[in-house]
Amino acid sequence: MGAPQPTLLDQLGGRATLERVHRRFYDLLFADPWLAPFFRHLDQRFIEDQQTDFMAGNFGGPRIYRGRPPAQAHQHLFITGEMFVYRQKVLKQALQECGVPVDLARQWIRVDSAFRKVIVKGDLGECVPFAGDGRIVVLDEIASR
Questions:
Q1: What is the pLDDT of residues 57-83, one digit of tens each?
Q2: Helix axes 81-97, 15-31, angle to 10 degrees
Q3: How far apart are the first and last CA of the chain?
Q4: How confident is the model over 18-55, as pLDDT tens digits?
Q5: Please, are residues 127 and 76 in contact by the beta-carbon 8 Å criterion?
Q6: Which of 80, 79, 78, 112 is nearest to 95 (CA)?
Q7: pLDDT of residue 142
Q8: pLDDT digits over 84-126, tens only?
Q9: Is residue 124 a contact partner of residue 138, using CB atoms and an 8 Å limit?
Q10: What span, in angstroms and rounded, lies between the C-alpha atoms of 96 and 33?
Q11: Reduced 3-state DSSP string for 14-57
Q12: Per residue in 125-144, is it b (16+ CB within 10 Å) or e — as a string?
């Protein structure tokens, strides 16, 4: 038996890399004129930590994420395919700015893409109102990007 293969988390440089990328990623999203309204009532640091915990587990690290699964966490958000693609463009920018090697960035994006089917909605009828206040979040598709 040989040595265990390094996980994607190991190859990326561990949790510190995920924290750095997620800090930059959410800095960009919270400032983005189109997608920022999705985050209006959220604490950025909390979201960064949640995303880091979630992705660390999906990159072969410990599964310490205790939040809602992606489908439940996004069920009240009308996220279109176009928004998902745009969000991934922002993620790619954060990965590049943080110096993640291209091959590892591609693997990161591939894992991230696996959640598209449970986040993207084809129409508003697929949204489920948020349990806390009954809201559904819909953004203006015409807003500048």
A1: 999 999 999 999 999 999 999 999 999
A2: 130
A3: 52
A4: 999 999 999 999 999 999 998 988 999 999 999 999 99
A5: yes
A6: 112
A7: 32
A8: 999 999 999 999 999 999 999 999 999 999 999 999 999 999 9
A9: yes
A10: 21
A11: CHHHHHHHHHHHHHHHHHCCCCHHHHCCCCHHHHHHHHHHHHHH
A12: eebeeeeeeeeebebeeeee
Ordered by where they begin, the domains of the chain are 10-126 (1.10.490.10)
pTM value is 0.90
**Cβ distance 9 to 15 under 8 Å?**
yes
Residue 137: strand pairing partners: 77
Nearest to 20 by CA among 110, 99, 105: 99
Round to whole Å and give the CA distance between 87 and 112: 11
Token pair, residue 103, equals 């091959």
The number of residues in the chain equals: 145
Positive or negative, the CA dihedral 83, 86, 92, 96 is negative
